Amino acid sequence: MTTQGPHPVSGTFPRSDEEIAARVKAMESILVEKDFIASDAIDYMSSVFENELGPHLGARATARAWFDPEFKLFLLADATAACREIDIGGIQGEEMIVLENTEDVHNVVVCTLCSCYPWPVLGLPPNWYKYPAYRSRAVRDPRGVMAEFGFDPGDDVEVKVWDSSAELRYWVLPRRPEGTEGWSEEELAALVTRDSLLGLTDASAPE
Amino acid sequence: MTTQGPHPVSGTFPRSDEEIAARVKAMESILVEKDFIASDAIDYMSSVFENELGPHLGARATARAWFDPEFKLFLLADATAACREIDIGGIQGEEMIVLENTEDVHNVVVCTLCSCYPWPVLGLPPNWYKYPAYRSRAVRDPRGVMAEFGFDPGDDVEVKVWDSSAELRYWVLPRRPEGTEGWSEEELAALVTRDSLLGLTDASAPE
Amino acid sequence: MDGIHDLGGRHGFGPVLHPDDEPIFHSDWEKTVLVMFPAMAMAGAFNLDEFRHGMEQIPPHDYITARYYEHWIDSMIHYGVERGVFDADELERRTQYYLNNPDEELLPSSKPEMVETLKGMIASGDDYHRPNDLPAKFATGDRVTVVDGPSLGHTRRPAYVRGRTGTIATLHGSYVYPDTNAMGEGEGSEYVYTVEFSGEELWGDEGANSTVYIDLWEPYLLPA
Amino acid sequence: MDGIHDLGGRHGFGPVLHPDDEPIFHSDWEKTVLVMFPAMAMAGAFNLDEFRHGMEQIPPHDYITARYYEHWIDSMIHYGVERGVFDADELERRTQYYLNNPDEELLPSSKPEMVETLKGMIASGDDYHRPNDLPAKFATGDRVTVVDGPSLGHTRRPAYVRGRTGTIATLHGSYVYPDTNAMGEGEGSEYVYTVEFSGEELWGDEGANSTVYIDLWEPYLLPA
């Protein structure tokens, strides 16, 4: 016997991939008919994000800063201009600010209210950056979150969390790993991960 | 093509009645084996709430208060003692407080943090009292909630919302409807609804 | 804790869906769950404040999509497993069994002394008063501000009144203190006050011509 | 609004599940949704702040159980229907059609001028600065308290900093003001500051040896 009344909420969650795909096709078909979009525009823009933009760009800027002290000063003073000099910049990074990790300070980036992220240096954000666990905890329990990424900045280090609530976009300049003296920019760039550019970890150690 | 990663949350919601029923049987079977519960205890207590406790008790106390001015004074001064006099009282109403609606003041009862409710006069709460919509809105938009119950206390009336956050239990003494002069207690009680004892509406008007 | 249960004033939950004819129990299992509460409390699995804290720890998506008594089930399992009443694997095994054999009902069982205990409990309830030798800090009419700031454990200090200033309406005496009782730190004894807040203080212009009364324990309050 | 999106410091969402190998697009439909954002914005269906406000209005259970780009879909439909880009019935009809014919793909279509526009947009982005003739009210080092109290419309003033006192770290210039731009009340122009809060101010003892920086518009701030 059951006579359950209205549920607290209606619907079944999560929705299936098939349902969403059908809805998006319906939207696209209407937008195409109204001449607001076309498949070549979708192919173009999605391929840019799939093939061109990504953490390798932030890694390149970081390696340059480790390699070239003057570029590092420029990057920390005006990240947008410094990145433009090496052909990095654009949408969702119109005004970038780079936060330097040091022996005493470790920086972490989050957007608690939505999903703001520095696209020109990192591409599109991973889902975890946009989901409630990270957004709720990064500002309150940053050390706990870093531990889940296998990283401990050390008890004496001050953790600075940057909540990207406006149109400024933050990213982290990780510390240059020890044992990389004399490395080339390309070799250095290979040590810079997406997670280190967000401050969830350090850059990788040399093998 | 889909390679959806972890969902923001796991599981499928809401769970089916069959799943819940199976889980409860499993729990009960263990508790019976440990001699912490028995089916006759379940039958006894659930039948009390199904057959004995309910809004007819609050209606009886209300009608008495409308009928007998001395009882009304007693009820407003010490609802627990006054109700005990007419054999109403017990669990989840160990300390009751009655709020009188007047021409100038309309009272509403809610529990924003869980589901506190005056069982001795109303029985078990309906689901809507325990679900997020009512709990979130009653303290902030009480007039909007009352409108959804088809009731408007009037713009000039002060709305007082009572959030039952401790072990005190609140309920409302609705205004006696006009046109009920000379009515018996039984006739009056028939006009008193659960919703009126919570302050979501007035008592019913005579037909 | 600052969980989803702290709902007062939150947006987005839509209209109050209130059918006219809601039954007292929507499914038979709800009857069992109702009675498991006193049964497990008597077995020492939890006290009332722990039970509430257990519900607050339900993941938010689950909290707002589950039927009401599922909250009870989850809190009962939370403490039941922690305190050895349930073995988690055994519970799961039996759940699967009953899911695969949905028509199998439990055999009738009898516990007359429990029926008697329940009879007394329903008639008399419980007593949450605890004597306190100290004088109450506030009196009717005093202006008080609710302690602001986050919560880690259990509390009955909802977000919507934190940092807000109101007036003591009633002093009710001293009671079990949920913030310690839910956390294994003892029942304590603290005065409870009904505090009156103007709608404007809580909600700005939205709150015009409304007042909110809420019961708050003395440690939640500071002189305004 | 005081919705589920305002997540900073809320409890209960569990560990951060972060697979090593997450693809850039998890399903093909995500590519379409990404590009529908600039397409619909250019068609005048919404501005950036409206788009965010549309996501905030997703019911809480849906907000926390949906995949990320479903938020975009919901906001696009919200404004698309409101502003005549989509007819709700037609959208539903076509959705059912594609659900019943899952293998049917849309025909290729071409809009070379849009490809050019997107190229420029990806390279240069947008400019949210708006000149403001008034002097900024605060300077680096000033102590400020964030306006407390609830929100009815769109705001970038999260609950976890409301009523908290911090220090101006940087003045960034004047920008579009989300609180009006999302509500059809004009772009406005307000100074944006990075404000520094000690962890203790926000979280008590939990916040030891941590600092939170957040960008706040001038109307959110009062002299401390």
Characterise this structure:
The complex is a heterotetramer, with two copies of chain A (207 residues) and two copies of chain C (224 residues). Helix content of chain A is 44%, strand content 11%. With 207 residues, chain A is mainly α. Chain A has a two-stranded parallel ribbon with strand order 1-4. A two-stranded parallel ribbon of chain A has the order 2-3. In chain A, helix 4 crosses helix 5 (79-85). The model of chain A has no long low-confidence stretch (mean pLDDT 94). Chain C has 224 residues and is an alpha+beta fold. Chain C is built from eight helices and five strands, in the order ααααααββαβαββ. Chain C has a five-stranded antiparallel β-sheet. In chain C, helix 1 runs parallel beside helix 4 (68-82). Chain C is globular and about 60 Å long. Classes of the chains: A mainly alpha (207), C alpha+beta (224). Chains in contact: A-B, A-C, A-D, B-C, B-D, C-D. Chains A and D meet through helix 1, helix 2, helix 7, helix 8 and helix 9 of A and helix 1, helix 3, helix 4, helix 5 and helix 6 of D.
Question: What characteristics describe this protein?
Answer:
heterotetramer, A: mainly alpha, two-stranded parallel sheet, globular, C: 224 residues, five-stranded antiparallel beta sheet, 36% helix
Describe how the helices and strands are arranged.
The complex is a heterotetramer, with two copies of chain A (207 residues) and two copies of chain C (224 residues).
Chain A lengths: L16 H17 L5 H14 L2 H13 L1 H9 L1 H7 L10 E5 L4 E6 L8 H4 L4 H4 L1 H6 L4 H7 L9 E6 L5 E5 L11 H5 L4 H5 L9
Parallel strand pairs in A: 1-4, 2-3
Helix pairs in contact in A: 3-4, 4-5
Chain C lengths: L27 H15 L5 H9 L3 H6 L2 H15 L5 H13 L11 H13 L18 E4 L18 E11 L2 H4 L8 E9 H5 L6 E8 L3 E3 L1
Antiparallel strand pairs in C: 1-2, 1-5, 2-3, 3-4
Helix pairs in contact in C: 1-4, 2-4
